[in-house]
């Protein structure tokens, strides 16, 4: 991919389904950071898209499925992928539980305890990110860092829903 192609194969806007509602301040902070980081640096290319990016992404949940609605910069629809949440459900649940422990720990635990929880949290996050990459394989090409940030947003949607 040339330098010009790389700057076009990216997301410039992320929208989460706001109809689900808001979550805890900690979760909302994770959402805001993930969106900011994702917009700043990402690699995102719908497979077989004959047009060019950059792209806008709307993430939502519909009937216990994860919906990736991809559009061009001008809002023209490119593709919508609907993925089952089943492969991610256990990881998201475990990740949510360990995040709650982490948020509790940063308020009252020792640095070594916080570090131990954070290592587990990062491991689960990596597992979820890889699962998401696998689920998007053949649909949307993303790199691992993009998958990590998208996994955070999937978790936020799931926690709200």
Set out the fold topology:
Layout: H1 3-8, E1 11-16, H2 25-40, E2 44-46, E3 55-62, E4 65-72, E5 77-84, H3 86-108, H4 111-136, E6 140-142, H5 144-160
Parallel strand pairs: 1-3
Antiparallel strand pairs: 2-6, 3-4, 4-5
Describe the structure.
- It comes from Mesorhizobium japonicum (strain LMG 29417 / CECT 9101 / MAFF 303099) (Mesorhizobium loti (strain MAFF 303099)).
- Belongs to the UPF0262 family.
- It holds the Pfam family UPF0262.
- This is UPF0262 protein mll6455.
- The protein is of the alpha+beta class and 161 residues long.
- The protein has one domain (3-160).
- The chain has 5 helices and 6 strands.
- A 4-stranded mixed sheet has the order 1-3-4-5. A two-stranded antiparallel ribbon has the order 2-6.
- β3 (55-62) and β4 form a beta hairpin.
- The longest helix has 26 residues, at 111-136.
- The termini are far apart.
- The mean pLDDT is 88.
What characteristics describe this protein?
single chain; 161 residues; alpha+beta; four-stranded mixed sheet; two-stranded antiparallel ribbon; 5 helices; UCP032146
The string of secondary-structure elements, in order, is: HEHEEEEHHEH
Number of helices: 5
Low-confidence stretches: none
Largest sheet: 4 strands, mixed
Structural class label: alpha+beta
Radius of gyration: 16 Å
Strand order of the largest sheet: 1-3-4-5
Tell me the fraction of residues in β-strands, as a range. 15-25%
Oligomer: single chain
In total, the number of strands is 6
Number of domains: 1
Helix content: 40-55%
Task: Tell the overall outline.
Answer: elongated
């Amino acid at each position: 991919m040339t330098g010009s192609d790389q700057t076009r194969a990216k997301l410039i806007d992320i929208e989460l389904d706001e109809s689900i509602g808001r979550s805890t301040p900690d979760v909302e902070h994770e959402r805001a950071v993930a969106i900011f980081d994702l917009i700043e640096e990402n690699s995102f290319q719908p497979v077989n898209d004959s047009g060019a990016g950059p792209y806008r992404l709307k993430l939502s949940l519909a009937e216990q499925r994860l919906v990736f609605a991809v559009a061009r910069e001008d809002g023209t629809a490119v593709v919508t992928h609907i993925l089952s949440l089943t492969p991610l459900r256990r990881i998201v649940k475990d990740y949510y539980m360990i995040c709650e422990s982490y948020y509790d720990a940063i308020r009252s635990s020792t640095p070594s305890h916080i570090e131990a929880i954070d290592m587990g949290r990062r491991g689960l996050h990596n597992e979820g990110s890889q699962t998401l990459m696998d689920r998007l394989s053949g649909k949307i090409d993303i790199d691992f860092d993009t998958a990590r940030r998208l996994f955070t947003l999937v978790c936020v949607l799931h926690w709200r829903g």
